[in-house]
Amino acid sequence: MAQQHLDPTDPTAEVVTGDTLGAYLRAQATEFLRALRLHRETGGSTAAGAEESVDAARLLRRSARRISGSLHTFRPLLDADWSEEMRPELAWLSGTLGLEHAYETRLERLLLALHRLSGATVLPAQAVDVVAAGSRAAGAAPVPLKAALENTSGPANATPTAERGNLTVGAAKAGALLERQLTLARTRAHSTALQALGSSRFHAVADKVAVLASEVPLTPAAPTTGLRPLAAAAEERLTDAIAALPLVVAGNPYNAEALVHGLSPDPSPHPQDGPWHQVRLLLRLHRYAQEALHGGNSPVDVRLLAAGRALNRHRDASEAAAAAAQAARTPRIAPATAYALGVLHADQRHEVEAARFAFQQAWQKQTVSTP
Amino acid sequence: MAQQHLDPTDPTAEVVTGDTLGAYLRAQATEFLRALRLHRETGGSTAAGAEESVDAARLLRRSARRISGSLHTFRPLLDADWSEEMRPELAWLSGTLGLEHAYETRLERLLLALHRLSGATVLPAQAVDVVAAGSRAAGAAPVPLKAALENTSGPANATPTAERGNLTVGAAKAGALLERQLTLARTRAHSTALQALGSSRFHAVADKVAVLASEVPLTPAAPTTGLRPLAAAAEERLTDAIAALPLVVAGNPYNAEALVHGLSPDPSPHPQDGPWHQVRLLLRLHRYAQEALHGGNSPVDVRLLAAGRALNRHRDASEAAAAAAQAARTPRIAPATAYALGVLHADQRHEVEAARFAFQQAWQKQTVSTP
């Protein structure tokens, strides 16, 4: 990692070559193997080790995404057959391992929103604990979650308003319905992830990563080929995609764009979200490319971080809104439940719009402050 | 009206006294009588004269509000007994005459929102005509309204999606339900207004206004007492009320404040709207006071107009959101209908939030540009 001290903005800086990429990939492969060891030690399914197991899965995904991203951005420097075999396997792994956490944060986001929309302010201590321990992604004020819902197994036996932290019966039933549906999905995702980690497919990936930790299949020319042009191309793909976003609309608050198809009969009513999701992925690839350039030790770019956070929020709100709409299609729900889910859906679409505004603001700042 | 040319910002300007107020009140009373004549000529209930009748009612309310506002602001200059008798009668009249129009614009606003939320873009010519003729308050792009709903008498016989301008069945049923409820309310308001205009109570008011048109009951000191201190007090009440508004929050886009009680079990969940409604009334009183100062011919203050428009939008959206929530409490509605009403309610509460933002922006501009 001799290149750690390089300044990429310095035109007299040393040329960063495939050697640096090799070191970065070896480091990420080592991280992957460490996370795998952590996962095996904590068992992945015992109650005591549940939190460590979640962390292990998170670390596995973290390095899998970085290896996969580097394979994409720096493709010309790596053995083509090996890259083509490796990337879909890493994508499968990180997708499979990510689902459980995605369902968990989606449920948290929706329950927090239901409580916010109910104007609930009561804070039983145990509920705060649950929220404090569990809400990594929510970033909202703590409100009683499980406490309000813990005695509820379904809409049929919802408890009275007063017992559930001031949730209306409709909001309580909507929360119970979402909890049932998303907990079921999460449990399934957990089983699928455990199965995946025990599969021969996974062992084949792990073996390849173990080889990568000591030997990166660079092309013969790679050690003397510069990384910067490829990293610049990744950045250009990002800026091109951002230039195609409707940023003028997004920067105009309360433009009411995000909810425009809130009641559309179209089964996939929000194609408008697609370009934003795409920018989120391109921003991540750009960030990983910068990491590789700096030997895994790139300076923190607060503007990129803010833009990335806005796009994560956009993705989370978009998926939460879809989950609320999906839950409203459950047969035989009460009108009050459906009404609460409608309010919740619109609230999350409004969050989508807010996230686009936040991205526009963050990106504007970036454009202004880098002359 | 010798004072029409006075510049109120000129410190050397003539003192504006009760005489000017007298002229203003006589002029408003004359307008009232003219509107009443127009109403009687157009009949108020024949099909051909419906639009003129609406205009007559609007003009009656316009002058009633101005007389009532002046009685309030310039109370010390007017005969106390007469004022105290007159004001509640004018308030009753303008409230009674305003309801029909309020229900009409509320329905328009809600149907336009339903179409926007359905992503409907088809524009049958007759629907555009209906919208163009009827949507004074909406200010949104024309979309098919009546055309989409005209064959619907209730949720039970909703027509298929394709036939109703791409409205989903839920949105179509919600629209039909709202149309039924608000049309009924409007019809009742129309009858009540007609009854009121034929009542002896109204004739007593009209007689008093007829006297006012020639003889204003000023106090003996009024003709030599200045109006400016009383107008300044009205302005101060306005600025004090605005200073108490949460303008910092309102100026922060997507603050999610307006929907905070969207699912609250509280039967009147939006006390937060109250102070904004109050500012709307105080702004109107301030505007009428300025009119009186200028003998009914005050210069157009675009900033006050923008602020007033934002507060009208706030009031309209607040009441539309409440109507959607109210409709969702109709017994035996389908879950899809309730869901659409939930989305609609949240959409209108966002409009409330957007209106507060717009007011904050307009008011900010005012503060900055008047040193």
TrEMBL record, chains A, B:
Tree of life domain: Bacteria
PROSITE patterns per record: CHAD
Gene3D superfamilies: CHAD domain
CHAD domain location: 18-368
Full protein name: Metal-binding protein
Organism this protein belongs to: Streptomyces incarnatus
Upper lineage: Bacteria, Bacillati, Actinomycetota, Actinomycetes, Kitasatosporales
